[in-house]
Design goal:
heterodimer; A: two-stranded antiparallel ribbon; B: alpha/beta; Amidase signature (AS) enzymes; 8-stranded mixed sheet; 3-stranded mixed sheet; 38% helix; globular
Amino acid sequence: MSLAADQVRRLARLARIAIRPEESETVLASLNRVLGLIDQMRAVDTSGVEPMAHALDAKASVAQRLRPDAVTETDQRELFQSVAPAVERGLYLVPKVIE
Amino acid sequence: MSSLHNASVAELSAALAAGKVSSVELTRMFLDRIAGLNGELNAFITVDEARSLADARRADARRARGEGGPLAGIPLAHKDIFCTRGMLTTCGSKMLANFASPYDAHIVERFDQAGAVLLGKCNMDQFGMGSSSENSHFGPVRNPWDRRLVPGGSSGGSAAAVAARMAPAATGTDTGGSTRQPAALSGICGLRPTYGLVSRYGLIAFASSLDQAGPMAKSAADLALMMNVMAGFDPRDSTSLERPKEDYTRDLEPDLAGLRIGLPKEYFGEGIEPGVRGAVEEAVRWFETRGAALVALELPNTALAVPVYYVLAPAEASSNLARFDGVRYGHRAKDYDDLVDMYCRSRAEGFGAEVKRRILVGTFVLSHGYYDAYYLQAQKLRRLIARDFAEAFKRCDVILGPTAPTTAFAIGAKADDPVQMYLNDIFTIPAPLAGLPALSVPCGFDAKGLPVGLQLTGDCFSEARLLGVAHRYQQATDWHLRVPTETPL
């Protein structure tokens, strides 16, 4: 299949990526090149095949490990916030969300 | 000193142990080579000489006390996808151009504990997305064999650093071939371990079900030494495997007589450059003279691996890279209207074109109405590809073929067509989909004088055997000892 311009705008909105009007044709064309490639796999009959989410599910135990429900991390708020674009009084600053 | 930059990690380790050279001297030598060569090759994004020399002094003191293993005092470089505390971690992207990680990646800690010296952080395709190391915010990496060419990618800075003897070894990551393909195109060795063997903690995520860290060096024996440091259980990575500790150097000289080498017909078909085919077939004949048994194979779903990968990897990337929102870390746009506009502009400015393309493809294949036809279908085909390998390993011990269909190509040659670039990964993508270990070692040169890579793929946890088979080959050949003639100093 190939995408139309309005579908790309919708995907960009979902992905939270701004696309400038002058880029939109190039983006559309390159996405359709990639879709042309991946469409090759759609025709294969895979009925009865179990999807594979983990590469070793047939070889090793890949069950999620559980650990005791105990605190293992220390408070490193200042260290972690030191790399943030904008913080104030220990809070991450973002544009006003609620009017 | 002059020959030491060509020495293997094992030789440097012996020289350090014998007191013939100090880590400070070695480190100084490699830092000088970086200073002399990096302007043209662009293999490193960040170098911190004072820190490297401090690491080296600590390692010398450790050795003086009679402590430290084989890697104590050995300088090495990390791909800039691994978080390092106190040194920038950019992932090759504007998004993280000023990111100072508050913690170290697991393998960074492991090499640090082993006493290795950090020379710097290597350039790469941003977020590991690319096969040429052109998709870097910091400019393309150049191939030491011919500076008009790419070194491969995404770990192209690591490959160029080792090839140009700016570092004796480096780390890389491999999602669809990013340790092996640049190793092949740059004339060095690279290993992708079995999925789950090396912790992904602190490795900036691209596609979590495929990402693995791996060593890159001049010889298979050096890869083995590095694996002894890198592999091991880490509770901070939910996919890290709990297995008994292995010595990856334990089987470096196996008997090749009777070794069953699988030759898939799909790996020797159309689209392979004659120079690549010739070199690989020559290597096959060498193994045959050593008594290896050649087994003709089929891996019928090989052609589907590239399309399947370019559904699964973008899908996982679109989810993983959602974390870059301009709030907690990373680039934030200067001008925006509201919160959503801030996300959209920060991501548009921070990510390069290939990263945005993959996020959009991933968003599409996961979106309502297309999920079953694309994402789920790709997961089912992934199983068929893994089954092909399982069948093959009933009949052979290792699978042999070219690492890439071509030698290094010109900078810019494939930059405008993503699909042409993706198809260069045709032989490296199947192993990650099946979770298998695979390595690339140099096996010759084409008519243009460019290195060719030979790929060996094994069943899960067969790294020691793969490294042994490769080491045997390197004991009899000198391809891995050839040095790019364009490298001065």
